[in-house]
What does this fold into?
Amino acid sequence: MISIIGSGSVGTSIAFLCVCNALDDVLLINRTKSKAIAKSLDLTNAIPSTSKFSISGTDDYSKLIGSDIVIITASTEVPLNDRSENISQQVTMIKKIAKKIKVYSPSAIVLIVSNPLDVLTYFFQKETQFSRFKVFGIAPSLDTNRFQYHIAKKFSILQSSITNALVVGEHGDTMVPIFSNIHVNGHFFPMSDVEKDSITLNVRNYWKTLRDYKTRSQFGIAKNVYDVIDTIINKKEKIIPVSLVLEGEYGEYNVAIGVPTKIDQDGIIEIQNMDFNQSEKNLFKISAKTIRNNIQSI
Ligand SMILES: NC(=O)c1ccc[n+]([C@@H]2O[C@H](COP(=O)([O-])OP(=O)(O)OC[C@H]3O[C@@H](n4cnc5c(N)ncnc54)[C@H](OP(=O)(O)O)[C@@H]3O)[C@@H](O)[C@H]2O)c1
It folds into this structure.
């Protein structure tokens, strides 16, 4: 069973993809019970006639029993200017949710989506003491999509021709696009510092630019989360950057931060060792320090 905490824009977009693709039974848990029920009744009509699965909604965490995957999209308030602006309410919320998940679905793989992503991933893992390979934040892959989009746009090339363009670090203003290994159509693709700076700014500000037209993002993150759920449920393998608690990898300890990983049905099976150049290493350190400062501010 796939359980999704939070029945807002992001949670229900993920549920829609899971239901349409008949992945598994879906449970929606929301603070306001009527919303979870309403969304599940609506989504029920999207279940293909060939599917053997169903969707239901509740505010009762005990219904989590039997979950294989739990996805956390709950949010006390959606951030407007900085993903860390509601940090203390969000940390209080994640700790309460973590206690419940520990009781009702202690062997589930848990995907964190709510912001501030890295800080909440850290506190969830510490609160539950679940394996750090079974608790990870989904966002660096979305940031990577945005990075590829801006490279493609700037150079008028196809996004599908770009490989090894990756975003690591914080899901926030200090995220680190990795330029040093980008290939286009199989060939190394060098860029000037001015080009790199402009793309970096656009990637970091993507969500704010979106706000000029739409209050919040939902479909890109939903597809990224869906791909991870599909990998786990259908026993596939996927290379993907995610946020997890590091214990020495990339020179960092006791902080959750985005790095490239390999995942399969058991969660993270490998943290990939990728070469960054010196400037990227420096930016990654600054990013880790920023997350650590946010963690310590609680
Ligand atoms: N990782 C990423 O790349 C990424 C991308 C986009 C968004 N996000 C984040 O995802 C989160 C959700 O965004 P959204 O647009 O879906 O927000 P939203 O539409 O406001 O939905 C949030 C939902 O969480 C529910 N909720 C609050 N506290 C809860 C609790 N303790 N238990 C269960 N449900 C609870 C709310 O319930 P009520 O009905 O009672 O209000 C609401 O339905 C935000 O933190 C946002 O910043 C992350």
